[in-house]
Amino acid sequence: MTIFQFPKDFRWGTATASYQIEGAAQEGGRGVSIWDTFARTPGKVFNGDNGDIACDSYHRYEEDIELMKKLGINTYRFSIAWPRIIPDGDGEINREGLDFYHRFVDKLLEAGIEPFCTLYHWDLPQTLEDDGGWGNRRTVDAFVKYAEVIFKEFSGKINFWLTFNEPWCIAFLSNLLGIHAPGNRDLQTSINVAHGLLVAHGKAVQSFRRLGITGQIGIAPNVCWAEPYSKSPEDQAACDRSIALNTDWFLDPIYKGSYPQFMVDWFAEAGATVPIQEGDMEIISQPIDLLGINYYTMGLNRFNPEAGVLQSEEVDMGLTKTDIGWPIESRGLYEFMHYLQKYGNVDVYITENGACINDDLDNGKINDDRRISYYEQHLAQIHRIINDGINLKGYMAWSLMDNFEWAEGYRMRFGLIHVDYRSLVRTPKESFYWYQNVIKNNWLETRS
Ligand SMILES: N=NNCCOCCOc1ccc(-c2cn(C[C@@H]3NC[C@@H](O)[C@H]3O)nn2)cc1
């Protein structure tokens, strides 16, 4: 057993996202998002699940906040649904949507919980997708308008801001692999989307500074940490490409003002180019204050010319996996955080980390011991990272409660709280009480 003491000002939290928990999809003046459309497209989402009801947090947020108080968190990461604020994307502002988030944020503040707000967590207004989505500068300008509305409304109430959640998922999972909304499968489209969202990010940061908004702003890439399956140069290069597409493809433009040349060249070989316009890279590389990092797993990658555009495949090494099939390997978080130092010792928050463990109720309890073990290993690595002098300032468990896990629908459960999707009854799992104790003590005590 080891005791890991965390810094006294370390932030402890949980994370969710609008489309995954709110429900009330046709209420409060909300417009249609690309996920409403995608979920209604046969075969896209397991069981034909959608976010019409989800966890009904639109109506039950006060109960959710009571559970957050019971958990003892001081930080809560959530996202605002753009379609609630500007239902058709760049037209009229929906006051009812703003009022909902004011009620929600006020309740959080009343509970002594710091709001940590993601502006875009994948629920693009459908009207903008119909007109080319992130590859069309109209969407970029619409995002800036939406961001400025939110900045002005919540400046002083919200002090932690993220522009985009998981840009790799927005660009490549959703427009190259076609697994998430809107489901395109085209390399040039995905590169256009990545560039569009980066320009939108940079313009939003410029607005944030120009409007004198209080607080800090950043972006939240997801990590795809990988190590080479063998010592061969081909496997190392395949590994580098896999890591770079999640990280460098977005953070080089932001921190260096240019894309990683080896990846630009790789895509050029595949006939795709980045649609850079005059001034774009200066806009994108606006200084930011923080990074959110989402980490779940890592893999061993090797070269395979048949393995997609990156010619890089993950080798199944027989590691213990979570119920969504991701290997449990907390070491990757430590390695990645050191990799990230090439951008400087920037302030980092782990804005997502958690395990899909589909345990169900057993005599009124959920004994999700595997989830506790996952968190134990990852928090131990986080202590190790902090101990190395890396500016890791806080941790948000994904997720507060079971919710709509995108293409997996409701079958995959990541929550500290179990949600019965028929009754919407919330039941804290054993991991909830374990995390409650870590937060109360501000230390981790490993059980083995
Ligand atoms: N990386 N290479 N993949 C190659 C081929 O993968 C096929 C499948 O791919 C993926 C990759 C990543 C994910 C994913 C899901 N979450 C969890 C959500 N995060 C944001 C929050 O809303 C959570 O619900 N994080 N990541 C899903 C599918």
From TrEMBL:
Key words of the record: Carbohydrate metabolism, Cellulose degradation, Glycosidase, Hydrolase, Polysaccharide degradation
Catalytic activity: Hydrolysis of terminal, non-reducing beta-D-glucosyl residues with release of beta-D-glucose
Binding site for substrate: 20, 121, 165, 296, 398, 405-406
SUPFAM superfamilies in alphabetical order: (Trans)glycosidases (SSF51445)
GO cellular component: cytosol
Membership in a protein family: Belongs to the glycosyl hydrolase 1 family.
InterPro entries from the UniProt entry: GH, GH_1_N_CS, Glyco_hydro_1, Glyco_hydro_1_AS, Glyco_hydro_1_beta-glucosidase
GO molecular function terms listed in the Swiss-Prot or TrEMBL record: beta-glucosidase activity
PANTHER family assigned to the protein according to its UniProt record, in alphabetical order: GLYCOSYL HYDROLASE, LP05116P
Biological source species: Paenibacillus amylolyticus
Protein's recorded name: Beta-glucosidase
GO biological process: cellulose catabolic process
